[in-house]
Structure formats: C-alpha cells, structure tokens
Amino acid sequence: MPSDSAAVVSAFVEGAPPGELADVIADIKKLTVNEPKLLDSITPAFKKYNEEQLTTVKLPGSSKNVIISAYNSLDDGRYYDTESQRSFSFDHQTQKASDVQPYTLDTDHSDLISSLLKSLSTHATEHYPSSTSTVCPSPSTLTLLLVSNKYSPSNFWNGRWRSTYHFSPSTSTLTGTINVDVHYYEDGNVRLTTKKEVKELAVVEGGKTTGAAALAGEVLRKVERVERGYQEELNRAFVGLSEGEFKGLRRQLPVTRQKVEWEKVWGYRYYPNMKTMPANKYAINANQNPSLRCSQYLIPHPNPSENSQRPA
Fold it and tell me: Rounded to two decimals, what is the model's pTM?
C-alpha cells in the first residue's frame, strides 16, 4: 500500500453506504493484509462516520436503540442517552456499546425536553419504519435528531433518512438539515445522496407559548410540514428524472432515423457493417433473435426470399 494508505482507507470508511460499514471493513482487511494495524490507526474516520450517520446501537440489557452523534458526545469516547439518562462507552469500529452508567442532564429545559421527546417519538413512529429519535440539550439550543434505516440486502438496496433540527427556546426558531442516502447495487452501483437545508422558521409568532407541551407540539408541526414537503419534492424529482433526464439518455430513433415497422418485422434482415453481403447467407430472422430488433442494421426488405444486396 502507498504511504497515504491511511487517508485512502479513511475515505472508504467515511463514504460507506447505509448499513454496509461491516462489508467495507471486511474488504479493507482483505486489501491490507500486510498492514494489520491500519484499521486501528483510523479511529477518527470511524468516529466521523458514526456521528455523521447517526449510527444507532442497543445498550446492554436494553432492546431500544440509541443514537450516536456529536450532540450527545461526552469525553473519552462516551455518549449519553437523554431518555434513559444513561451514559455508555462506544467502540466506533465494532459499533458496540458497553460500560453503561447513570447520567444526569444539566439543563434548564427539562420539561420542554421531555415533551419534545414524546412528540418526536410519536412523529417518528407514525412516519418512519425502524426509526430512532432523541433530543440533546446545549446551553442555547435543543437539538432534535431522527434517523430511519431500511435495509434490504436480499434485494440489493439500503437506505437511510436523517433529520437534524436546532430549536432555540429563547427565540422560538427552528433550523436544520435533512439527509437522504440510498444505495442500489444489483448488476451495478447507483447511489442517491440528497441534502436539504431548513432555513430559520418561526415556531410561535411573537414568541408566546402556553407551556412546554404546547410548544413541543408546535415544533413538531413545523417538522412534519417540512419533511412532508421534502418527500413530495423528492417524488416530483424522481418522476422528472424518469420522464426527462433518463429518457433523454436514450436515442429516440435508430441511426437510420426511421421507426421499426413491427408488422413487417418478419421481413427485416440483419447485415454486418459491410457495403455488400449475400443476404441468403447472413440474413437473421428478427423474430428468432429479439435482441436484434432495434439494431441499426435492421433494413426492411419486401421479399425475404429474394437474394438481393444491400445498396452501397
């Protein structure tokens, strides 16, 4: 491997498609058998991947997933879960949690966080399969995180939806980003990655609220409206790709600039790219060879039994 092998391998890790990090690691190990300690030297790449992708993990003794992110990160590779109020160690390479301990949130918005957790969980359960959500406090904002993973390796595709919102209790404004990442790899390798920036939204006009539960409800109404609009936008884009860009990649007519007359397909003949060729020796019946029907060398012939030549 070259001297910059760590940078190359780090790029592989950071670009791993949803649900396929283990496959990427297995391939890296095969390619770096002469450098067995290489993976241990790129811990920052694993950390970046897990935090950016909102990786989920089950804590020991629990059946519920929690999120790994930069917003619930503590010192020494530990993270906390707001709902269960526990902290834990996390191995970024194996994606395993351990050493669970009690953790107390230091925040002035406990009631609002509790209401946001409940409203966000309801929203996620209603709209996204296999979803995980949390709320992480900071001195000036509350960060809402939602991730939904859907893996179907038997059908050669995996996908992930990630939402990150920042709510400011002092100004009652909401900002955020939405990321969608889908990988399809049957007989090819196609990946869709999109990102939408959510510009500042006023959650409550004038900053007036009637309590934590009401404010949380208003926040989630804004979130639901934004995400519904983005999904509709993606659907329109997919239709446009199918009817526009993808269709434009196909040639509307063969190079002869003539449509195939299918009712006369029995009379078409296939000729190699030569000026003259005996038709009775090289003619190919298009009905017996469907793959040739759209060939640029299909020439209509009025009499298939006639031994004529292709004009120069």
Answer: 0.77
Cα 215 to Cα 106, 115, 119, 125, 204: the distances in Å are 21, 8, 10, 20, 8
Nearest to 112 by CA among 141, 153, 88: 141
- Cβ neighbours of residue 89 under 8 Å, at least 6 residues apart? 76, 77, 78, 97, 98, 99
How is residue 45 written in tokens? 């790449």
Q: How big is the chain by its Cα radius of gyration, in Å?
A: 29
The amino acid occupying position 98 is: S
Cβ 176 vs Cβ 164: under 8 Å: yes
> Strand, coil or helix: what is 12?
helix
Q: What is the pLDDT along the chain (312 residues), one digit of tens a residue?
A: 445 889 999 999 999 999 999 999 999 999 999 888 899 899 999 999 999 999 999 999 999 999 999 999 998 889 999 999 999 999 999 999 999 999 999 899 999 999 999 999 999 999 998 899 999 999 899 999 999 999 999 999 999 999 999 999 999 999 999 999 999 998 888 899 999 999 999 998 655 666 899 999 999 999 999 999 999 999 888 887 767 766 666 666 667 777 777 777 666 665 555 455 444 444 444 444 444 444 443 444 444 444 444 444
What gap in Å lies between CA 297 and CA 255, rounded to an integer? 9
Q: Which residues contact 28 (CB under 8 A, 6 or more apart)?
A: 9, 12, 13, 38, 39
